[in-house]
Design brief:
623 residues; alpha/beta; Oxidized Rhodanese, domain 1; elongated
Length: 623
Amino acid sequence: MTRRWTLMALLLLALAAMVGCSSDDGPVDPPAATTFETMAAAVEAYLNDNTDCPGVVTAQVLHDNLDDYTVVDIRSADAYTAGHIPGAYNSSLANILTDVGTTIPTDKTIVIACYSGQSAGHAKIALELMGHEDVKTLGFGMSSWNSTLATGWNSNIGDNLASPETTNNNAGLTEHAFPTLTGTNATIVATRVAAMVAAGFQSITWATLQPNLDDYFVVNYFGQADYEGTGTAGVPGHIPGAYQFTPYASLGFEQMLKNLPSDGTPIVVYCWTGQHSSQVVAALNMLGYNAKSLSYGSNHLFHSSLTANRWTAASANDFELEVGGARTPEFAAMYAAIDAYMNDNTDCPGVITAQALHDNLDDYTVIDIRAASAYNAGHIPGAYNSSLATILNDLNGTIPSDKPYVITCYSGQSAGHAKIAMELMGYEDVKSLKWGMCSWHSSLATGWNNGIGDNLASPETTNNNGSLTAFAYPTLTDEDPASVVEDRVAAMLAGGFQSITWANLEPALDDYFVVNYFGQADYEGTGTAGVPGHIPGAFQFTPYTSMKIGEMLPYLPSDGTPIVVYCWTGQTSSQVVAALNMLGYNAKSLSYGSNQLFHSSLLASKWTAAETHEYELTDPILP
């Protein structure tokens, strides 16, 4: 990719070579360009190109053509996690040069988004000087994308310059020596760009500048008419003592660079919005000056007078925000597998009743994952004994694969862990036995008979979802994206069935993030299934729609806080919990679900004596 500054530097060297030749004396070595001259050539080629600088794109244009751009959000990880442009990558000013081209693709035009559109200018000029062409910044930053993020602009417009000056002060300009830059011509641009982004966004507020104006060299980056208050954009003048530098015509090596102080005096540049001046300031700092951009520019000084380049309520849109942190390749691969399964209501939870299994037993291969002693005491005829820890190995060895599988356990709950594991490993149409062996024979129904109750004395009906906050996603960076599904499935099975009893949860509710895996009406106690409400403090996650990246998955805590998921019976929640643990969360399923909390109120998904049968139990299959 050709860099504009390379051509400029070559032209300078060529001209120097021509001047250094004499027909009388023969060739004379031309004076080498200084590192400042090389850096100035790069900066001038960019700053004086009005097709590229400042190079902003409006929120509307970005929204309407989002698939054509790669958006890089350089706000903090917390701000990005709370809400960002769909598909945007998170980076920072300090890391953007490393991230772009490695974790961030370069096959599309890049748009840099920040809070207000100002710090993005530093990132844009850095990328441009390093060879990335046609980089854009989002006009007014994320403030323009969604009105909920517009606080920065809304709170910083004003008429804070009480007495603008209209006198032209340029006659008082003097010439200064150029800064001296250390390094070589071959590396100076890369070195200075890296130093600039490492130093962070250089800005100053009017509140800091105004009482100390005499200590600063202020650059008004307007055309002359606007500087003098006679233009058409409503500008009433300029900051007292400021000098006028014309955009695209003043900051070249042979232009007004020589009028900027190089002795360390702080230079403040201001424009209309702080977006253009950000790029100018970044350029000046790369040249060795000490420069800062005035925050919010003229919009902070004389907002009500402006007739152009003005922030208004109409500048903010309400475009979609995607919640959640950046996704590592490992997490993305694991999520893709889980999303395809968990949000498919034809597959999850995928239970089969004892009646249906009994009537079609020859059509299924039954795998009993209870302890060997329980299996030996009596099991479904023809069932194979395995365990959570060994089921995948057994499927590759002793258990045939010619029929659909049914997984059975004691109560139907731990079987959910095995079912999702098998599904993710490619076994299709796996079922789990509803209510487990409790439903097959009444002599095995002790678990469910003892697990029901009305143990939640005061259900809550308040919807708590308004207090949810977003978290970063787990990283899973110790995994290989190519094998992460296989590895995480194995780890989940090795970890055993992850559950918690109400007796252990209730006294420590404040220590848990509780997920109610119901529809909203049942969660609020207004549904038709008899549910009187939910566990106090629980959040409502809708089955088959909520555990998605674009939905509520980013609201799950990834900091190690234990998550408890409950449903009607503990059978669906078992599979949800297994999925969450494979994604890197710390999750447990509430044993027996709502049947333990408010059993007598339930009108559906309720364990009763009628759920158990007296089907045949047999001895184990011998090898």
